[in-house]
Amino acid sequence: MLNTLSGRFLILTTIFVMLAEILIFVPSVARYREDYLLARLERSQIASLALLADEVIDRDLEEELLLNAGVFNIVLRRDEARQLVLSSPMPGEISQTFDLRNATAVALIRDALNTLLTPEPQLIRVIGNPLRDAGLLIEITMDTGDLRMAMIDYGLRILLLSAVISVITAFMLFLAVRRLLVRPIKAVVGQMQRYAEAPEDARRIIMPTAGIRELREAEEALKSLETQLTQALRQKERLAQLGGAVARVSHDLRNILTSAQLFTDRIEMSEDPAVMRMAPKLVNSIARAVSLCETTLAFGRAAEPTPVMTLFSLAPVVSEVMEAERLAIGDEDVSLFEDVPANLKMRGDPEQIYRAISNLVRNARQAISGSGKPGEICVSARTEPGAWIIEVLDTGPGLPPKAREHLFQPFQGGVRKGGSGLGLAIVQELVRGHGGTLTLRETDGTGSCFVIRLPMGDVG
Q1: Burial, 450: exposed, middle or buried (Cβ in 10 Å; 0-12, 13-18, 19+)?
Q2: What stretch of H or E contains 125?
Q3: DSSP character for 82?
Q4: How far is residue 316's CA from residue 338's CA, in Å, rounded to a whole number?
Q5: How far is the C-alpha of 241 from the C-alpha of 299, rounded, in Å?
Q6: Which residue from 323, 382, 315, 384 is spatially nearest to 353, judged by alpha carbons?
Q7: Pick from 260, 382, 398, 430: most CB atoms within 10 A?
Q8: Sign of CA dihedral 230, 233, 234, 235
Q9: Per-residue model confidence as pLDDT tens digits over 302-342
């Protein structure tokens, strides 16, 4: 019971209602004391009427009137010159005087607490206004013993009533909480358990039905999470299937490219100037294709191969990327520029840096070609304190919101129709392998700029 939400709510509600009743208890007891004293004043005023009817009454009647009023003496001042008095022997000295004519709430509460906390009976004087303006004031002297006992009896009845109200209120709230909160929460938990049994089954995704706004928001958030998880699991399954297919294709393609590599070795021996100029590039392209086939599964299995770090000049690598892209441009209206200092050397894997820059330039070229408008691509590089900076800037149409949302996620960040969305994911992984970062500095309708930042470490 104590370990359940509804059980704890029941206990807390009972405690809080009791605390509220206790806060009400003190003013209630103070009010009861005031009413008790006013009743004594009223009874005393009625007793004093006998004196008005007959100015001389016998002692026995006077004592009987005082006994019925519950006081020792009565003073009724009707005007400045006349006082009507009923009196009896006083059992002691008056310890306190209370004037109820202009008593404040704080004073009444304080006096009530003093009465409750003082166990010994005291003789007190009470002053008040006569009923129906029957004089200027009325004053009585009385004992506090009966008053204190009456206050204690009233307080116990109030506490008992408060306890009953607390239990009834807590039980009603307990039932309401179980119906409005606990049962819907249990339903959500049960749905989560059913979904966990087969997360790939889209039919098990929760359908928000709660009428309470907070629970509805929780169900909608859970629905979004389950939908994304189901899609991710399906994507994972497709990736696993793709990995198996690529593994089979990669084996045969590598053999074909190896044969092509043997033919290029013979082409290199040609004395034709054009062939001599193009053969090295063809050899390098086929060599990269063979290397790519051998490492295709690395992305799906774990990560790109560990880069082989060497100190190399960046300008020739960028030039080779740009020359390869110029051959691919054809009749497209795309201009390529490079701004890399000839003496800039950096530490890294030149093959992986080539692939990273090539992917960025190719993405930019394809974006410009897809827009049907002319554009420019510029690859620049520079050094900053502790880092090498490579920027790929284009004047294309920029990235759409969906592509920015899934920028570096494989198979989701593609912009071109039919694109795989692997390019930026591969670039990011290659850059991370060098301890660097890939960021999209800006993108809008006038173009985009990607920045590769590679740390120098202990190399200057």
Answers
A1: buried
A2: strand 123-128
A3: -
A4: 11
A5: 14
A6: 315
A7: 430
A8: positive
A9: 445 678 899 999 999 999 999 888 887 877 889 999 999 99
pLDDT at residue 54, as a whole number: 59
Structure tokens at 41: 């004043």
Q: Which of 63, 57, 55 is nearest to 84 (CA)?
A: 55
Q: Quickly count: other Cβ atoms within 10 Å of residue 117's Cβ.
A: 8
- For residue 110, the tally of other CB atoms under 10 A from its CB is 12
Contact of 320 with 360, CB cutoff 8 Å: no
Q: Which of 310, 200, 196, 291 is nearest to 188 (CA)?
A: 196
State the pLDDT at residue 418: 39
Q: Name the one residue in this structure whose structure tokens are 């929780």.
A: 218
Instruction: Give 61-80 pLDDT, tens digit per residue.
Output: 777 878 888 888 888 887 76
List, for the chain, all residue ranges whose pLDDT scores fall below the cut of 50.
Answer: 297, 299-303, 413, 417-420, 460
For 339, list phi and psi in degrees, rounded to 5. -135, 75
Q: Is the pTM of this model over 0.85?
A: no
Site of tokens 């330039």:
361
Helices (H), 201-345: 213-267, 273-295, 298-301, 314-329
